[in-house]
Amino acid sequence: MNDKDITALYFERSEQAVSETAAKYGGRLRRLALSFLDSEQDAEECINDALMKTWQSIPPNKPDDLFAYAARIVRCTAFDMIDREHAAKRSAVTVELTSELEECIPDRMAERDAPEELAELLNQFLTSLSKDKRSIFIMRYWQGLSIAEICKAAGFSESKVKSQLSRTRKELGKFLDRKGVSI
Q1: How many domains are there within the chain?
Q2: Hey, which of 14, 27, 78, 181 would disulfide with 36, CB 3.0 to 4.6 Å?
Q3: How many CB atoms within 10 Å of residue 46?
Q4: Is-above-0.70 flag for pTM?
C-alpha cells in the first residue's frame, strides 16, 4: 500500500492505517528509535507512542511523505523519553550532537520543535549539498549515528567523516547567516 492510500485510511479514521504504517515502516522507525534509546523495550514503547501520535495528528495534518512524518514523531518521542529518564542530565549522544550544532544553529531555534522557517531553510541547505555530504549530515544529526557507524555505512575514513561534518556545519552557518538567521 502506498503512502497516499495509508494517509487516506487515517482520514477515514480506519485503524488499519496504523497497522499499514507499522507494516511498511516499522523496521526503519525501530532502527531510528534504537539509535537514540538504550533498549529494545524503550524502542518498542517509542514506536507505539509515535504511532498513536501519528493517529492523533492525521487528520488534520496531511503529510506528503508518511515515513518522514512518522520518523520526526519517533525522533521527538525518543527525545521526550530521554528527557523523562534522565531529567537533569541528558544522554551523552544528545549533548554531543547538540553541542556540535550550536556553532551554526541559534539556541532559540535549536529545539526539536523547530519553527517551520528553520525546517524550510534546512531543507534548502540539504538540497544544495552533494549526495555524500547530505547523507553524512543526515546520518549524524537526524539518525544520531556515531562517527564509527557513519564510517561503516558510508565507507569513509573517520578523518574524512569528521572533516566533512565540520565543513558542512560551517557551510550551514554561512547559509543561515545569508538567509538572515543570526547565531
Answers
A1: 2
A2: 78
A3: 27
A4: no
